[in-house]
Design brief:
heterodimer; A: mainly alpha; MetI-like fold; flat; B: mainly alpha
Chain lengths: ~300, ~325
C-alpha cells in the first residue's frame, strides 16, 4: 500500500511537467503576445522588451529556463499584473474559490446522496421520478441562467441575501447553491444507479439472509459499495470546483481563481497561465490518488499491491 | 406438395431499440420537444416575418428612448435592448445553438471514432502512446485549447474549407459566419476524448473475434478492417455517447458565448442572448429568462432523449 502511494506520488512530477510543456507549446503556437496591442510598437522598443523577457533566445533555451523554474515551483512574475509573482496571485485568489467550491461540493453531496438513495429505495415511485426529473433539470439549466434567477428572487425580490460580492455568510449562500446544482444532479444520478446495482448483488442477499435488519444492510453494506461511482466522480469534480468556476465568479462578482485563469489566457500572461495549469494538474492527480486509496476502504475486494 | 413456410420477419437491433424507445414516455417527450424545436428554429423566423414583419435584426425606428418592452401580444417574449423582437432573436439564435450541437458532435464523432479505432486495432506501443496523448489533453483546460484554436485559425487564417462550408450554408462573403463555423470545429476538437476511449475499448474486445480473422485471411487491408468491419460494430455505444455529447457541447458553446469568446454580434445564440440578458436582469428580466429557459427546455429534452436512447440500445446496462 505504502509503495503504491509513493509510486503514484512520484509519477505526479513528470506528468505535471508534461502538462506544463503541452500548455507552453499551445501558448506559443497561438499568434500574438502579451505586449502587442492595436498600436504597433517601434522596433527598438519591441526588441528591448523581447530581450528583457528572454524572448530573443532560441526556443529550446526559453523552454529549458521555463521548465527549470517550474521544477523549483517558481513561476516568476505575472506579465500583466506588474510586480506580483504568480504564486502570490494564486495564493490571494484561491481562498475565495476554495471556500465556495468546498461548500458547494458538501451541499451537493448531502442533496445528491439523499436524493439518489431515496430514488433507489423507492424505485419507480413518485419519489424516484420526482428526484430524477429534478436532477435532470439541474443538468439542463446553465448556471449563468440559474444564478441570476436566484439573484432575481432571493436578493432583488425577497431581500434575503446580498446579490453579489464577498462578505459574510449571506454572500456565500447564493453562489454555493448555484455552483452545487449541477454536481448535486450528477451525484444523485450516480448514487441511484450505484445503489440499484449493489442492492441486487449477492453480498446484500447474504447480509439479509443472516438476519441483519434493513438499516444495517443499507448503511453498513449497500451504501459502501453503492457510492463508489460518486467517489470516482469526486476527484476531478473537486479539483474543478477549487479552480473556481468562472461563471459563478462573474455572476456574483467574486474575485476567484477561475476568472484570473481566463483573463491570463486572454492576456497571454504566460507565467500566470502556466502556474495555474501546473497547480491544477497537480491538484487533480492528488485528488485522483486519494480517490483510488479510498476505494480500498470502501470495497474490501479492491487491494493495491 | 407445397412446402409452405411462414416467413417470419426478424426484428433487427434497430427496430427493437426503436420499440423500446417509444415505450419510454420521457424519451418520447424529449423527441417531440426536439422535433418542435427544430421545426420552430428552421421555419419560425420565416413564419414570424410573414405574420408580423419582425426579423431578428430589424431595429424599429420609433423615437422611444427605452426600447426594452416587456412581453405583450405584439412581442410574446418582449424586446431586447435595441428594441428587436426577442422571439425572432431566440428563433434565429436557436439555429446556431442547434447547429453547434449537430456539427460539433459530428466533428468529435469523426475524430474520436477514427482515433480510438486506430489505437485499439493497432495496439501495442502505438496504442499506449496514443492513449497517453489523450490523457495529457484531458489534463489541459479545454478553454485554453479552444482559445488557441480560435486565434490560430481565426481571421485571415481561417482554412478555405471552413469558409466554403459557411458560404454554402449561410451565404457568401460573411467573415463573421465563418468564425462561427470555426467555433463549431474548435468545440468538436475538444470533445472527442471520451469518444476515443469508448471506441478503443469496443475495438479491443472485437479485434480478436473470428470475423476480423476472416477479413484478414481474405486480404482486407488494415484500413478496411478498421473502418469497414470494426467501426460499424461499435455503432451502438458510439450513438449512445454521441447523444449525450450534443447537450454538453451546446452548454459549452453557451458558456463560451457568455464569456464573450463564442458567438459574436450581430449573430446570436441562446448563450449570447442569455449573456446579454444577464446585464439587465434587475430591470428587464425577460431578456434573460426567455433565451435561458428555451435553452434549458432544449437541453432537458435532449438529456431525456439521450438517456432513452442509451436504455433502448443497451438494455443490459439499463439502470433497472
Amino acid at each position: 500500500m505504502l509503495s503504491f502511494i509513493l509510486r503514484r506520488l512520484l509519477i505526479i512530477i513528470p506528468m505535471a511537467l508534461l502538462v506544463v510543456t503541452l500548455t507552453w507549446g499551445l501558448i506559443r503556437i497561438a499568434p500574438g503576445n502579451f505586449y502587442s496591442s492595436e498600436k504597433k510598437l517601434p522596433p527598438a522598443i519591441e526588441e528591448n522588451i523581447r530581450k528583457k523577457y528572454g524572448l530573443d533566445k532560441p526556443w529550446y533555451q526559453q523552454y529549458g529556463i521555463m521548465i527549470f523554474n517550474v521544477v523549483k515551483l517558481d513561476f516568476g512574475n505575472s506579465l500583466k499584473y506588474q510586480g506580483q509573482s504568480v504564486n502570490e496571485i494564486i495564493g490571494r485568489h484561491l481562498p475565495y474559490s476554495a471556500t465556495i467550491g468546498i461548500l458547494a461540493y458538501l451541499l451537493a453531496l448531502v442533496v445528491g446522496l439523499s436524493a439518489g438513495i431515496i430514488a433507489a429505495l423507492k424505485q419507480n415511485s413518485i419519489w424516484d421520478y420526482g428526484s430524477m426529473a429534478l436532477a435532470m433539470l439541474g443538468l439542463s439549466v446553465p448556471n449563468f441562467v440559474f444564478g441570476p434567477i436566484l439573484v432575481l428572487f432571493f436578493a432583488l425580490g425577497l431581500y434575503w441575501f446580498p446579490p453579489a460580492r464577498w462578505g459574510g455568510f449571506g454572500n456565500v449562500v447564493l453562489p454555493v447553491i448555484t455552483l452545487s446544482a449541477i454536481y448535486a444532479a450528477y451525484i444523485a444520478r450516480l448514487t441511484r444507479a450505484g445503489m440499484l446495482e449493489v442492492m441486487r448483488s449477492d453480498y446484500i442477499r447474504t447480509a439479509r439472509a443472516k438476519g441483519l435488519d434493513e438499516k444495517t444492510v443499507l448503511i453498513k453494506h449497500a451504501l459502501r459499495g453503492g457510492i463508489i461511482p460518486v467517489v470516482s466522480f469526486t476527484g476531478p469534480a473537486l479539483a474543478g470546483l477549487l479552480a473556481g468556476t468562472v461563471v459563478v465568479e462573474r455572476v456574483f462578482a467574486i474575485p476567484g481563481l477561475g476568472n484570473i485563469f481566463i483573463q491570463s489566457v486572454l492576456n497571454r500572461d504566460e507565467p500566470l497561465t502556466l502556474g495555474i495549469v501546473a497547480f491544477l494538474s497537480i491538484l487533480i492527480m492528488i485528488f485522483n490518488l486519494a480517490v483510488d486509496i479510498s476505494y480500498g476502504f470502501l470495497d474490501p475486494r479492491i487491494r493495491y499491491e | 406438395m407445397a412446402n409452405e413456410v411462414e416467413i417470419v420477419k426478424g426484428a433487427s437491433l434497430w427496430q427493437d431499440a426503436w420499440k423500446r424507445l417509444l415505450k419510454n414516455k420521457l424519451a418520447v417527450f424529449g423527441l417531440v420537444v426536439m422535433a418542435i424545436m427544430a421545426f420552430a428554429v428552421i421555419f419560425g423566423p420565416m413564419i414570424l416575418y410573414w405574420a408580423t414583419g419582425f426579423t431578428a435584426d430589424g431595429i424599429p425606428e420609433n423615437g422611444d428612448l427605452i426600447k426594452s418592452f416587456p412581453p405583450s401580444l405584439l412581442h410574446p417574449m418582449g424586446t431586447d435592448e435595441a428594441g428587436r423582437d426577442l422571439l425572432a432573436r431566440v428563433l434565429q439564435g436557436g439555429r446556431i445553438s442547434l447547429m453547434v450541437g449537430v456539427i460539433s458532435t459530428f466533428v468529435s464523432l469523426i475524430v474520436g471514432v477514427s482515433y480510438g479505432a486506430i489505437a485499439g486495432y493497432i495496439g501495442g506501443k502505438i496504442d499506449n502512446v496514443m492513449m497517453r496523448i489523450v490523457d495529457m489533453i484531458y489534463a489541459i483546460p479545454y478553454i485554453l485549447i479552444v482559445i488557441v484554436l480560435l486565434s490560430v485559425f481565426g481571421g485571415q487564417n481561417t482554412p478555405g474549407w471552413i469558409q466554403y462550408l459557411s458560404e454554402t450554408f449561410g451565404g457568401a462573403g460573411n467573415q463573421g459566419l465563418s468564425q462561427i463555423f470555426l467555433l463549431f470545429f474548435a468545440l468538436g476538437l475538444v470533445s472527442w476524448l471520451t469518444m476515443a476511449r469508448v471506441v478503443r475499448g469496443q475495438v479491443l474486445s472485437l479485434k480478436n473475434q473470428e470475423f476480423v480473422l476472416a477479413a484478414k485471411a481474405t486480404g482486407v487491408s488494415t484500413f478496411g478492417i478498421i473502418f469497414r468491419h470494426l467501426v460499424p460494430n461499435t455503432l451502438g455505444p458510439v450513438i449512445v455517447y454521441a447523444t449525450l455529447t450534443v447537450p454538453s457541447v451546446m452548454l459549452t458553446e453557451a458558456f463560451l458565448s457568455y464569456l464573450g469568446l463564442g458567438v459574436q454580434a450581430p449573430f446570436a445564440s441562446w448563450g449570447s442572448l442569455a449573456s446579454d440578458g444577464v446585464k439587465n436582469i434587475a430591470i428587464f428580466p425577460w431578456q434573460l429568462l426567455f433565451p435561458g429557459l428555451t435553452m434549458a427546455l432544449t437541453l432537458f429534452s435532449l438529456n431525456f432523449l439521450g438517456d432513452g436512447i442509451r436504455d433502448a440500445l443497451d438494455p443490459q446496462t439499463r439502470k433497472f
